[in-house]
Fold this protein.
Amino acid sequence: MPEIVRQFSHGRELADAAERLRAQALARELSPAQVIEILERWGESLRGTEVDAIPGVPFLKIWLRRGTLESMVVRELGEEGLRGSWREEGAARLRAFPLGLVGHWPAGNIEIQPLLSMSCALLGGNACLVRVPSGLIRETGLLIDKLAQVPGGNLLLERIGVASYEHERTDLQFAMAESVDGAMIWGGAEAVKEIRSLPFPDWARVAVFGPRLSVAAMDGESWSRDSIARDDWCRRLARDVWQFDQQACSSPQMLFLERSAVGDIAEFARRLTEAFEEEQELHPRRTIHAAQTSAICLARATWLLDDATRRAVFPATPDWTLLFGTGATMPTPTQGRTLSVLLVDDLLEPIARFDGMVQTLGLAIGNRAKEAALAEAAGRKGVDRIVPLGRMHVFGSPWDGTDLIRPMVRMVRHVAANRD
């Protein structure tokens, strides 16, 4: 089996590897149904001490399930697309064909993102060239090695290449961009801007998933009238905060809590604190970067010093932080399991201030009509996903309001010249 994670020294070397991958994908057709069968086996194989220690693996295993992937393909390409066949559309017929080679530039702070990104292009029948940040090489290698061990895994491995090179190597960045037929770009504003400026071919399809943040909201009825329901919502929120160490775009950075005439804010704060303590017991932090520790300490001090009416709850360690205050303005996110809890009179207040930066809105709402009104308002203010608390990281298609497979395929339209 060829080496998967490769170090490249010259642009020509990378371009040659890209051409081999493209030729391999176009020479052997794989329908989405065939790819799904292999991806599901891969997901089932993701276990073991080293793999279990990789953040996000539980999410990746859910993502690679047949039920998740089939529903995504059917929604974007239709039932016929799942089998790789034509579908009738009036006097014409349509079928998805692969672009060829899709380049992937994942963000460096989500360990499983290289695999998530390439799975979307593989479902479209493409080959994948993935530029993996240096900090994710070990994790990516461990996960792809599992693919090599499942039946049929080599059918996908032969169309996957992982490129490793330093960020400063603009010659390799240029060579990779010039070699692809499509690109999936993930990351912060600076990284996205830099990659989008690369010399992609004129025909290349480019899908960008830039920096976003996410917010939770809970109405007065959900936390004040039923203690069992309140405690459940608190546990769900804690789980959403813990996933991906709050670095994902879908991680809640703040909770807008609607006032209630019958609710005890102090009791809610106590129960949310207990939920955070329980989550820490179940999923303790293994490591933390020194810069993140400094940011957490600064956020705690600034929060309390700027306004005497604010409160904060946190352990002596930087494991988690709850910052309690009021107002509909979104504070700057700290991450590192730091949640701002802001009391508001009406949840429409903060939603009215959204500016397109909010990706996911996690809700705990006691009234269906009220939730529908909030969803309508959030959708108009640029929110792409509106889900219950506890499901903020449960992704499907569309992602950030964009299809994941269809942008990386060509929808070919055939109108028959011979109608006999």
User: Anything to note?
Assistant: The chain has a mean pLDDT of 94.
